[in-house]
Design a protein that fits this description.
Helix content: 25-40%
Strand order of the largest sheet: 3-2-1-4-5-7-6
Bound molecules: S-adenosylmethionine
CATH class: Alpha Beta
Radius of gyration: 16 Å
CATH architecture: 3-Layer(aba) Sandwich
Number of domains: 1
Distance between the termini: 32 Å
CATH superfamily: Vaccinia Virus protein VP39
CATH topology: Rossmann fold
Largest sheet: 7 strands, mixed
Length: about 200
């Protein structure tokens, strides 16, 4: 990481403070996918978040699935997990080619995961269901994180956002979303940062 990037992130942390989430326990889930993912490490804090905020264990929706690392983490805790993704990558992701078939193969043994190849913009127009839990980890720009996040926050009891430490735009979107929806916001500052709106 370049010096410019380190300074930009430090300024964002100071300028946009969020109450730190301190877990009571870190717990490794039973099922984990052996694929590369910048989400690694966060799997240990999910159960703590679900317990702390008394989140139901029926349904979870995520936007930004890639190969399914985070989806498989959620599949340990929820009866049904939906993963919405273009499966073509974006300007911030390492992967830029169509990986839908590979993603489907990598999560195939977890029967409670449903992968849907769609832009979040199209998906949110036709789903009005309420979910226990939501996760947003798409392209890390303000506009997209806010737009997708607003739907996810309104359609779930608790919504988490990856990359609040590594992308100041995500951090700002999370703060604004909590303010605009009148919800509480926390930040777990490890593994690139996890914003929690509840
Ligand atoms: C950082 S990756 C997700 C990583 C994943 N959560 C994990 O556990 O490894 C971001 C994903 O968001 C997807 N994405 C970007 N823009 C999107 C959009 N407008 N709608 C749906 N998915 C999008 C990309 O295709 C990419 O696979």
């Amino acid at each position: 990481m370049g010096l410019r990037s380190i300074i930009r992130r430090a300024i964002a942390r100071k300028k946009y403070p969020i109450e730190t989430y301190v877990p009571a326990k870190l717990q490794m889930p039973e099922n984990i996918l052996e694929v590369s993912s910048s989400w690694k490490g966060l799997e240990q804090v999910i159960e703590d978040i679900l317990d702390r905020f008394e989140i139901g264990r029926e349904s979870c929706i995520e936007f930004g699935t890639e190969y399914g690392y985070s989806s498989v983490v959620f599949s340990n805790y929820f009866k049904h997990v939906k993963g919405i993704d273009l499966f073509t990558g974006d300007k911030h992701s390492r992967l830029k080619t169509d990986h839908f078939a590979e993603a489907k193969k990598s999560v195939a043994q977890y029967k409670n995961i449903e992968l849907i190849k769609s832009d979040y913009r199209d998906y949110i127009k036709q789903d009005n269901q309420q979910y226990d839990f939501a996760h947003v980890d798409i392209v890390h720009d303000y506009k997209e994180t806010y737009e997708c996040g607003l739907w996810a926050v309104k359609h779930s009891k608790c919504c988490i956002f990856h990359d609040t430490e590594s992308f100041p735009a995500v951090r700002r979107a999370v703060i604004d979303l909590a303010k605009d929806t009148g919800k509480q916001v926390y930040n777990y500052p490890y593994h690139y940062g996890l914003g929690i709106i509840v």
